[in-house]
Write a structure and sequence with these properties.
It contains 4 helices and 11 strands. It has about 230 residues and is α+β, with helices and mostly antiparallel strands. It folds into 3 domains: about 35 residues; about 130 residues, Immunoglobulin-like (Sandwich); about 40 residues, no CATH class. Helix 3 runs antiparallel to helix 4. The termini are far apart.
Amino acid sequence: MEGERIVERGKMCLVAFFVLLAFALAFGFIGTVFSADGTVLSVDPPWIEDAAYEPGTSINVGVVVANVTDLRFAAFNLSFDPEILDCVGWWCLPEHSPVPNEVVIGDGFTWFNITYGSPITTTSPVVLVNMTFNVLAHGHTTLELSDTVLQDSGQNSIPHVTADGYFNNFNPYDLNQDGIVDIRDIAIVAAAFGSYPGHPRWNPVADVDGDGYVTIKDLTLVAAHFGEH
């Protein structure tokens, strides 16, 4: 009996591993997780998902580099939905004597071109730029790194991978994501009531508690948050 339990636990651990692997692949974190021997330029934190970030609040986001040797120059663009976020400030940490050659804060993007007086060599993540964003509205957006250039002191290109970020401040009970929990969201659950995967009326959005069935629990959860933004 004990041996069977051990085997069963082993199977569960294996399943959990593949679920995490699939999650990393789906959301673009595979470069960060599995590129320990290569240079990674990434958004930190990689995932911000919280309805507490109401319009009028702010978030801080960094662009970090890890596993790099002799980084003298970095350039990159970070793009986002300008209807959701607005970059209102930025700063560099002074440890490596950064010289911002060019910084452009635009509508839906930020562009940085930075030279480091003291080249960066590190295995653990080092922040290149910190940014402050005002939250303008409810929604979700990718924080996408593009046009990235990393060079060493000899102006040689440093091969690297990038990992984007993601922001979402929708209320999880706002099922149609129109900015308010109302009768329309309750109607979504009601329309799928009693369904399950494979059922003709199945709607995974309506399975609020994620138990594989749309039941009175899901209706109650949405109704309890009625009127929230």
